[in-house]
Design brief:
The complex is a heterodimer of chains A (447) and B (993). Chain A is built from 9 helices and 23 strands. With 447 residues, chain A is an alpha+beta fold. Chain B has 43 helices and 17 strands. In chain B, a hairpin with a 4-residue loop joins strand 16 and strand 17. Classes of the chains: A alpha+beta (447), B alpha+beta (993). Chain A: Belongs to the adaptor complexes medium subunit family.
């Protein structure tokens, strides 16, 4: 279990320190120095380490430190026990989400300004090192930023909070009313790729999230359907025509693994593979999933690198957009790494803007918009300074960033039905919005 | 140094550094650095020429980036270019970059060396200094190779500036330290010595450092420096503090130079020349006088500088150890410091006094400070100072004050820090023994020691008590009484139980008369501690019990009851169980006479160096004091002990350190114990070993008695009963020896020296196999022969779980053989680890035909006993056979040629093995001859031919073997050109069938 949680700024100064367990040997020593020792150990060995620490888990003196970094802020969970590392990271991410929900951006300033709130939150979401309810919606009902004001709340409301938090449906309170029942559904995907110079896919996967925002009255029951291969195949088995199966079979996707928000009834998913739930109010992430098969790769990068003598390098990169011509990709950025002994760069590109960024050792080529089925190219001449060391340039891969208005995994929302038996509104009265956004994760092509 | 002008400020560098300092994160810093590197790269691009200023600026930036921990792989060329600049700042940055960044195998090293050479040759002193500093900073072999010849020249050249001379001397010193072999000694050495006379004190200071180092290496070359150093020293010492101007430090005249000169003088013995000596004494006296003067300043720097000189002077006085008055004065001076406010001074005073105490002139003077030192021991706050106080007490101890010092140390021990406890314990033990007039005092002291600091009392300490008690009849009764009383305490340390068990087991009868310590009470007291002790102690107690049975028949039944209990007889520990079983049986079946002989009182131990002292010496280690000092102290102590030990005629062996000191009587014993007629290398270990075995085994009825598998009395000696420890050298007293002898009682018999030849005949027809094997060792052979040469690989396999020590194996040729066979042995390793194999190669050359076989002599120590055996090496004449193929016609022709009666040997013998044709064929071929088919008209007969190669001659050989299956007989006929060969071959071969 988590023994303690620390938040550091970029200098390694401790902003927040909360210790849940002193199992870490401090009882045996006359003075409780452990906490300070752990704080210092992490600062010395991770934040100020000579070599940049790349592993998110560090073991120092039989104590494990799990850290995540948000801009310049380090969050570190410390434990001496053999905990489930995935659980700890999940918790840390949740903690970041909660903090963002409360004060938007995680920055040193915000943390300093909200330190009382953060301690309050930490008291609530971790109990003796065991994670508790970390649903920001639920937390917001009883941990508020108004301070004294909250005490003025009537008793009814307070008891309601208690019954909600301790009840079966802890994520939604009763008696919510909206004039307009609305639902927003976003399918957010990030596509990761590693491609060989010859265009062979070495590894590719999509990790996606279904994020919802719901403004629904009462206690509605929702049902979400997508083109999951297993569901579709099952329906076909129930007597769909062969013609039908050929059509829909194309569009179904194989999901490798997925996780759900706690509101989803897992028993129902296990037995019928249908996703039904009573949604929390406001923002939440309904599910996460990962696919590896039949991924639509939005862009193809074709590199061409030629070394002309010891002091010159010619690079030509072609990108091809590989989706429906009617769609537009945005925020395209191609990073072409340059050797460490680059002394000058000349770039020519047809479209967008390209610049040599010395601080990153890369040529950065930006294109604002690009339609599908198009192609564009850049060529660069890199001058090199002869060095006395014979170290060869490692040729890091060319990476790419973009945003496309479709789901590269091929996921489609088939339906999202809302049932509310007590209040008088039906599925047709709910206004639903669906949006697909595909972004690049680590999208690299070797050169 | 030229002042840095405004234009040299390098604003770009300052901006860059402040940018880096302002970076919020590591990433930001890396980005900034990448940007800067790209900028510098574009500037260094070949096409435009940079001016000196910007070159310097960028090189400086690169240096800064490198020092931040990033790799720099360019800019070296620019830095080298800076070397040729004429501006000081540019040159300086160039040199800085090179000494920090250029590694020795760079391609640029030639260019750099060239630049340095130019600067060295220039007449500009600042340039010369820069280049000298660079050489010293890099200090690599390459640098030394390139410039080792030039620097001495610069150093001694008449027209060199003073500042350059200083740098040159220090540079040479550095090169001498890193690659001493490259710095040539030559005619310049004499002139370097004369630098001590230089006008410039800076030059003298650096030259003194250099000369001190060189003088340590080759003292004879720099002997002349002594007089110069003394002269210089006296000039400094007598000068008024203002005379030296720049070199006066807080009113002390040239303290560093004085210290260095005094150090230099410590490389040499006191000067022979009387005048010189007088002058030196005068100097030292002046320094001592100055210490008495009131300080000229209250500043701490003043007293520090003054004391530095003073302590160095005292060190020199101690080193010379020849002027009693000076020694005493030094001692008094140190005595003053003992009460000084400054902790460091007290520490230094105690440390120096320690060395003073060992000098015979000042020993008495040191002793006067005993109260102060004891006080220091009690009140000092710093543990390292207390440690020094302990050292000093130890050093100043002699017969007159031993009781006081030991008592003080004991009382201090109760509160002492754990870090120094063990050392104090050892020291107390040594002192108590060394100065014991009255052994009751000794016994009391050691028992007190065990009581106060039982955990720190090592094995050696309590072994020693027992040795002494056993060897001295007069204290035995007292010791028994004291331990009995000590054991009465409800909680006593395990070591005390060990001592108590041993002593009561041996001498319990001496106090049994008193009803308060009747045998039963004694036994009950010991047994009450039994269950609280560890296994080795319990084993010792069991041995004490069996001794009780012998001493007091009245408690026999009680003790047998105890031995019979399940907790003993079925103890999980094998050692305890075995002892219980054996002792029980022994007590029931043996008659009182046998019991009395088996369990006789231990014989006195041979006197030898205390093992505690050996341990203390080891603890000291070589690092504590300079080697010479240590050795001198040892000598001193040796002398002291010789004087103090009560002059008895006991022969003493100097432990592992002094094997040569062993007395003749010991030698005789060892020879008697080992009836070997071969001269063996006499190692100190074997000397210490054998006499004890002889003396221990002979009087105690152990080896004579019927139960050789029992080893109670030997075991009592080695109470741990653990398997023989290989760290035998750690315990150089009798205990360890017996300890090792214990588990191998069979080896108490004289070592087996018989020559084994069991497997010898097996090797006549083959070359590889196992030659010899017993419980300890296996010897395998692999041999190859070609013409008259052979090579044998001998493999010695250690079958035991212990190391073999002092292993040696040599080939012994009987005199007769020496002229005929040349055997060359490569020496083998002296140890074989447990389960390991050792290979030895023997090269053999056959000079002439021969009959006897050489013997392989093997010697090693296993578990403390010397093993010795000989194995006959299967080197026979037939090994040098070359098979010869020939036709029937040829064969018979030669057969006839060798027709002379003495050339033929015929033998008719009965078959020892079943008569198998194939086996016989294989044997004949293995014998070395060629098997000739279709030569003999009778197909059942075997015919062979071959040539024996020796260095001098070749002997042709034909053989014929006629089997008679019905009679199970063979007839072997051999014809060779030499009768001896025929005979030998027939002997060898006939045994095979």
């Amino acid at each position: 279990m988590i023994g303690g949680l620390f938040i550091y700024n970029h200098k390694g100064e401790v902003l927040i320190s909360r210790v849940y367990r002193d199992d870490i040997g401090c009882l045996s020593t006359p003075y409780p120095s452990w906490e300070r020792n752990a704080v210092d150990a992490f600062r010395v060995n991770v934040i100020h380490a000579r070599q940049q620490v790349r592993s998110p888990v560090t073991n120092i003196a039989r104590t494990s430190f799990f850290h995540v970094k948000r801009s310049n802020i380090w969050l570190a969970a410390v434990t001496k026990q053999n905990v489930n590392a995935a659980m700890v990271f999940e918790f840390l991410y949740k903690m970041c989400d909660v903090m963002t929900a409360y004060f938007s951006k995680i920055s040193e300033e915000n943390i300093k300004n909200n330190f009382v709130l953060i301690y309050e939150l930490l008291d609530e979401i971790l109990d003796f090192g065991y994670p508790q309810n970390s649903e920001s919606g639920a937390l917001k009902t009883f941990i508020t930023q108004q301070g004294i004001k909250s005490q003025v709340r009537d008793k009814d409301e307070q008891s309601q909070i208690t019954s909600q938090v301790t009840g079966q449906i802890g994520w939604r309170r009763e008696g919510i009313k909206y004039r307009r029942n609305e639902l927003f559904l976003d399918v957010l995907e990030s596509v990761n790729l590693l491609m060989s110079p010859q265009g062979q896919v070495l590894s590719a996967h999509v990790s996606g999230r279904v994020v919802m925002k719901s403004y629904l009255s009462g206690m509605p029951e929702c049902k979400f359907g997508m083109n999951d291969k297993i569901v579709i195949d099952k329906q076909q088995g129930k007597g769909a025509t062969s013609d039908d199966s050929a059509k829909s079979g194309k569009q179904s996707i194989a999901i490798d693994d997925c996780t759900f928000h706690q509101c989803v009834r897992l028993s129902k998913f296990d037995s019928e593979r249908s996703i039904s739930f009573i949604p929390p109010d406001g923002d939440y992430e309904l599910m996460r999933y990962r696919t590896t098969k039949d991924i639509i790769l939005p862009f193809r990068v074709i590199p061409l690198v030629r070394e002309v003598g010891r002091t010159k390098l010619e690079v030509k990169v072609v990108i091809k957009s590989n989706f429906k011509a009617s769609l537009l990709a945005q925020k395209i950025e191609v990073r072409i790494p340059t050797p460490l002994n680059t002394s000058g760069v000349q770039v020519i590109c047809m479209k967008g803007k390209a610049k040599y960024k010395a601080s990153d050792n890369a040529i950065v080529w930006k294109i604002k918009r690009m339609a599908g089925m198009k192609e564009s190219q850049i060529s660069a001449e890199i001058e090199l300074l002869p060095t006395n060391e014979k170290k060869k340039w490692t040729r890091p891969p060319i990476s790419m960033n973009f945003e496309v208005p479709f789901a590269p995994s091929g996921l489609k929302v088939r339906y999202l039905k809302v049932f509310e038996s007590k209040l008088n509104y039906s599925d047709h009265d709910v206004i639903k919005w669906v949006r697909y956004i595909g972004r690049s994760g680590i999208y690299e092509t070797r050169c | 140094m030229p002042a840095v002008s405004k234009g040299d400020g390098m604003r770009g560098l300052a901006v860059f550094i402040s940018d880096i300092r302002n970076c919020k994160s590591k990433e930001a810093e890396i980005k900034r650095i990448n940007k800067e590197l790209a900028n510098i790269r574009s500037k260094f691009k070949g096409d435009k020429a940079l001016d000196g200023y910007s070159k310097k600026k960028y090189v400086c930036k690169l240096l800064f980036i490198f020092l931040l921990g990033h790799d720099i792989d360019f800019g070296h060329m620019e830095a080298v270019n800076l070397l040729s600049s004429n501006k000081y700042t540019e040159k300086q940055i160039g040199y800085l970059f090179i000494s920090v960044l250029v590694n020795s195998n760079s391609d640029l090293i030639r260019l750099i060396n060239n630049g340095i050479k130019n600067d060295l040759a220039s007449r500009n002193p600042t340039h010369m200094n820069l280049s000298l500093h660079c050489i010293a900073n890099v200090g690599s072999r390459e640098m030394a190779e390139a410039f080792a010849a030039d620097i001495p020249r610069i150093l001694v050249a008449g027209d060199t500036m003073d500042s350059v001379k200083q740098s040159a001397a220090l540079c040479l010193l550095r090169l001498n330290r890193t690659s001493p072999d490259l710095v040539p000694m030559g005619e310049w050495t004499a002139r370097v010595v004369h630098l001590l006379n230089d006008q410039h004190l800076g030059v003298v200071t650096s030259a003194t450092s250099l000369i001190t180092t060189l003088a340590q290496k080759s003292p004879d070359d720099f002997k002349t420096s002594v007089s110069l150093a003394i002269a210089r020293l006296s000039r400094i010492v007598t000068s008024a503090s203002i005379d030296l101007q720049d070199y006066t430090y807080y009113f002390v005249a040239a303290p560093w130079l004085s210290v260095k000169l005094l150090r230099l003088l410590q490389c040499y013995p006191p000067p022979e020349d009387g005048a010189l000596r007088g002058r030196l004494t005068e100097c030292l006296e002046t320094i001592l006088n100055k210490a008495q003067e009131p300080p000229k300043s209250k500043k701490v720097q003043h007293s520090n500088a003054k004391n530095a000189v003073l302590f160095e002077a005292i060190a020199l006085i101690i080193h010379h150890d020849s002027e009693p008055t000076l020694l005493v004065r030094a001692c008094n001076q140190l005595g003053q410091f003992l009460q000084h406010r400054e902790t460091n001074l007290r520490y230094l005073a105690l440390e120096s006094m320690c060395t003073l105490a060992s000098s015979e002139f000042s020993h008495e003077a040191v002793k006067t400070h005993i109260e102060t030192v004891i006080n220091a021991l009690k009140t000092e706050r710093d543990v390292s100072v207390r440690q020094r106080a302990v050292d000093l007490l130890y050093a100043m101890c002699d017969r007159s004050n031993a009781k006081q010092i030991v008592a003080e140390m004991l009382s201090y021990l109760e509160t002492a820090d754990y870090s120094i406890r063990e050392e104090i314990v050892l020291k107390v033990a040594v002192l108590a023994e060394k100065y014991a007039v009255d052994y009751t005092w000794y016994v009391d002291t050691i028992l007190n020691l065990i009581r106060v600091a039982g955990d720190q009392v090592s094995e050696e300490v309590w072994y020693r008590v027992i040795q002494i008690v056993i060897n001295r009849d007069d204290v035995q009764g007292y010791a028994a009484k004291t331990v009995f009383e000590a054991l009465q305490a409800p909680a006593c340390h395990e070591n005390l139980v060990k001592v108590g068990g041993y002593i009561l087991g041996e001498f319990g009868n001496l106090i049994a008369g008193d009803s308060r310590s009747s045998p039963l009470v004694q036994f009950k007291l010991l047994h009450s501690k039994f269950h609280l002790c560890s296994v080795p102690t319990r084993a010792l107690l069991l041995s004490a019990y069996i001794k009780f049975i012998n001493l007091f028949p009245e408690v026999k039944a009680t003790i047998q009851e105890v031995l019979r209990s399940d907790s003993q007889l079925r103890n999980a520990d094998v050692e305890l169980q075995q002892r219980a079983v054996e002792y029980l049986r022994l007590s029931t079946i043996a008659s009182t006479d046998i019991l009395a002989t088996v369990l006789e009182e231990m014989p006195p131990f041979p006197e030898r160096e205390s093992s505690i002292l050996a341990k203390l010496k080891r603890r000291k280690g070589p690092g504590n004091q300079p080697g010479a000092e240590e050795a001198r102290q040892e000598r001193e102590r040796e002398r002291e002990r010789e004087r103090s030990l009560n002059g008895s005629a006991e022969h003493r062996e100097g432990g592992a350190a002094a094997s040569a000191k062993s007395s003749p009587s010991v030698d005789v014993l060892s020879v008697a114990a080992l009836p070997t007629n071969r001269p063996r290398p006499v190692s100190s270990v074997s000397l210490m070993q054998t006499p004890f075995l002889a003396s221990c085994a002979a009087p105690s009825s152990l080896s004579a008695g019927p139960m050789t598998s029992l080893y109670p009395s030997a075991d009592l000696l080695g109470p741990t009963g653990s398997p023989p420890s290989t760290g035998g050298s750690l315990l150089v007293d009798v205990f360890s020896d017996s300890l090792q002898a214990g588990p191998a009682p069979l080896d108490l018999a004289p070592p087996n020296t018989a020559v084994s030849e069991d497997n010898f005949s097996r090797f006549i027809c083959k070359n590889n196999g196992v030659l010899f094997e017993n419980q300890l060792l296996q010897i395998g052979l692999k041999s190859e022969y070609r013409q008259n040469l052979g090579r044998i690989y001998v493999f010695f396999g250690n079958k035991t779980s212990n190391q073999f020590l002092d292993f040696s194996s040599t080939v012994n040729c009987p005199d007769l053989l020496k002229t005929k066979l040349n055997v060359h042995t490569k020496p083998a390793d002296p140890t074989i680890d447990a389960g390991a194999q050792l290979q030895q190669i023997l090269n053999i050359e056959c000079l002439e035909d021969f009959t006897p076989a050489p013997v392989l002599d093997i010697q090693f120590r296993y578990g403390g006993t010397l093993q010795n055996f000989g194995v006959k090496l299967p080197v026979m004449l037939n090994k040098f056979f070359q098979p010869t193929e020939m036709e029937a016609q040829d064969f018979f022709q030669r057969w006839k040629q060798l027709g002379a009666p003495q050339q033929e040997v015929q033998k008719i013998f009965k078959a020892k093995h079943p008569m198998d044709t194939e086996v016989t064929k294989a044997k004949i071929m293995g014998f070395g001859t060629a098997l000739l088919d279709g030569v003999d008209p009778n197909p059942t007969n075997f015919v062979g031919a071959g040539v024996i190669h020796t260095k001098n001659t070749q002997v042709g050989c034909l053989l014929r073997l006629e089997p008679n299956t019905q009679a199970q007989m063979y007839r072997l006929t051999l014809r060779t050109s030499r009768d001896t060969v025929s005979q030998r071959l027939s002997d060898l071969l006939s045994e095979q069938f």
